[in-house]
Write a structure and sequence with these properties.
With 391 residues, this protein is α/β, with parallel strands linked by helices. The chain is 37% helix and 25% strand. It is built from 14 helices and 18 strands. It has a 7-stranded mixed sheet with strand order 5-4-13-14-15-12-16, sandwiched between helices. The chain has a 6-stranded mixed sheet with strand order 7-2-1-11-18-17. The mean pLDDT is 94. It comes from Nonomuraea rubra. Pfam families: FAD_binding_3.
């Protein structure tokens, strides 16, 4: 096996391309978008994923591009501040955890690989035959030894090889939307949050960013929507946030003009196997933990490292699954648990959470309470001992 095709040039795809090339494979990456996608939201790199980043020689660069977030402040419907917490506690970060904008991280990964990996932009896979022949929307057929689906929770490779998306999706009963908006609140490395029963709005601006990101999350039964119908998705968001106070009406007006609008259900992907025939899945395509887990980027980085290493050292896709399964299970468990603190189900629960935030600096059991927040994330992020595949 020497010639490998990767579908998707996001973090899972570019990281997998790097490690496969390091092990001597010939790598091609096909990406539907016309170029590497810039921007995006802030993401965390924790635990074992930091080790992967360090082994790529990118740790200093990642820290140099860190978000440098300082504080998160909660506001009521009238705009009065209710509670403030440090940004690291708000994000569940401890120790050496790093936070970076998704586009910045992907740019670093792409720059590591662009001279040694063939990137084909503006194209997509239409078929994968048993003999390795792959057909494309725009390019002519080509033959590969292996196809890696690194194309996200709505993976095209997974659909072609494993079956319909609905067979592997576990809905968590929430939706999320995020986009760039003007920084009318004058935020500087801070988050402004308005939480109401069943829905939350969050605006933040990171270091050296003149704009802001608006993030909305709310509880909802499954919605009938088209993943490519952005106008329809914006209407669904406006309906979900209708009647909300604080800055939400102004934010919804700004959303209308956003050209980087993201909207999706908060869901996980669960498969009994991540490989079939000449295809294997990595990152969200195989084991999306949902945005609520805060571990999607770390899962992609660690998954890429383990997949390439096991292929190169004889473990194959069986070794990949054996090594990674417990890590994935630990991190997927975070999603449903974290949602309870991200979208509060009732006014009483919301009052209790905000009261605890206000009192936290003065509580005698402060350290224990912080560990209850950050401990599960820390343990999940470190729930794998990485092999040194270079030996």
């Amino acid at each position: 096996m020497t010639n490998i095709l990767i579908s998707g040039a996001s973090i899972a795809g570019t990281a997998t391309a790097y490690w496969l090339r390091r092990h001597g494979y010939t790598v091609t990456v096909v990406e539907r978008a016309p170029a590497i996608r810039p921007g995006g939201y802030k993401v965390d790199v924790r635990g074992a994923a930091l080790t992967v980043i360090e082994r790529m020689g990118l740790l200093d660069a990642v820290r140099a591009r860190g978000t440098d977030m300082r504080v998160a402040t909660y506001y009521d419907a009238a705009g009065r501040p209710l509670a403030a917490v440090g940004a690291d506690l708000f994000g569940g970060r401890t120790g050496d955890d790093a936070e970076i904008m998704r586009g910045d991280l992907n740019e670093l990964l792409y720059d590591l690989t662009r001279d040694e990996v063939e990137y084909v932009f503006g194209d997509s896979i239409t078929g994968i035959a048993e003999d390795g022949t792959v057909t494309f929307e725009r390019s002519g057929p080509r033959t590969f030894d292996l196809v890696v689906g690194a194309d996200g929770a709505h993976s095209n490779v997974r659909r072609l090889v494993f079956g319909p998306e609905r067979d592997f999706t576990r809905d968590l009963g929430h939706y999320v939307s995020i986009c760039t908006v003007p920084n009318t609140l004058g935020l500087d490395r801070e988050e402004a949050v308005h939480a109401a029963a069943g829905r939350t709005a969050n605006v933040y601006s990171t270091r050296q960013d003149t704009a802001a990101k608006a993030l909305f999350m709310w509880s909802s039964p499954p919605l009938d929507h088209d993943h490519r119908d952005v106008a329809g998705q914006k209407k669904l968001l406006a309906r979900a946030m209708d009647g909300a106070g604080w800055q939400v009406p102004a934010l919804l007006e700004a959303v209308r003009d956003a050209d980087d609008f993201y909207f999706d259900s908060v869901a996980q992907i669960h498969l009994d196997r991540w490989s079939k025939g000449r295809a294997v899945l990595v990152g969200d395509a195989g084991y999306c933990a949902s945005p609520a887990s805060g571990q999607g980027t770390s899962l992609a980085l660690v998954g890429a490292y383990v997949l390439a290493g096991e292929l190169a050292t004889g473990g194959g896709t069986e070794g990949y699954e054996r090594e990674l399964r417990p890590f994935v299970a630990a991190n997927q468990a975070l999603g449903p648990a974290n949602l309870k603190g991200m979208v509060i189900g009732s006014r009483a629960a919301l009052w209790f959470q905000l009261t605890m935030m206000r009192l936290l600096p003065r509580l005698p059991g402060r350290d224990l309470m912080i560990e209850r927040i950050t401990g599960p994330i820390f343990r999940a992020a470190n729930a794998i001992t990485l092999k040194d595949y270079a030996r």
